[in-house]
Amino acid sequence: ATVSEPAQKCCTENIQPFLASILEELMGPVSSGFAEVRSLFDKEVNEIIQDFQKTNDTTKLKENVDQLMNLPFNSVKMEPCYLKVNLLQELLQDLKSRFKVYHIDFVIQRTQNFMQELMENAVYTFEQLFSPSRQADSAKVATTLEKVKLRVLK
């Protein structure tokens, strides 16, 4: 009871007025990182679609989709996504001094983990939605690939 009132007053006066601007500042790098994940998924699936349209090779298509499943674990391809979030390091330094925010690396690492999870979910969903259509004729497969990609991106 003795701590509650001063703590609420402190939060109301010293923290709450800044929360919206802090959130807005932090969301810039986070949003651009997740947008990069979306863009990478889109690019990779487009390459699969283009390769299939050129070759009509279902064996190669299966290999490409299997490779897509490894995308979340491909650090080279995921690196541009992770780099977008590294901008948080600079933004959080200011917060660290003003609000005693610690464990900046943890915040960045968790954000990057969520990005990897998002990519895992995207490729898994893509594979699950596309899998039943693999045996269709070539014209339908290319159309299905595009539809599945758009569905996952939605």
Automatic annotation (TrEMBL):
- Could you identify this protein by its name? NIBAN protein
InterPro entries referenced in this protein's UniProt entry, alphabetically = Niban-like, Niban_1/2/3_dom
Matching entries from PANTHER family are given as: NIBAN FAMILY MEMBER, PROTEIN NIBAN 1
**Niban 1/2/3 domain residues:** 9-154
Which organism does this sequence originate in? Aegotheles bennettii
By sequence similarity, the record places it as follows: Belongs to the Niban family.
Q: Which gene encodes it?
A: Fam129a
